[in-house]
Amino acid sequence: MFARLDGSKVEWIDGRRGLVEVVLLATGYRPILDYLAPLGALTSNGRTIRRAGSRARRGLGNLGLE
Question: Can you give the pTM of this predicted structure?
Fold first, then answer.
């Protein structure tokens, strides 16, 4: 999670800094992620592909999913 936003700059809680183009915050009762299927970012049962330290697609990340 980030500690601070300043325009297009972000500061992460570990002190690293960088530029971001989009911050998307969303809430809901259940994820509907079928729109990610064309990116190859879902498992066969519809969950996001997550591996320790990596992502299914460069630039694509998620927070708060089971």
Answer: 0.44
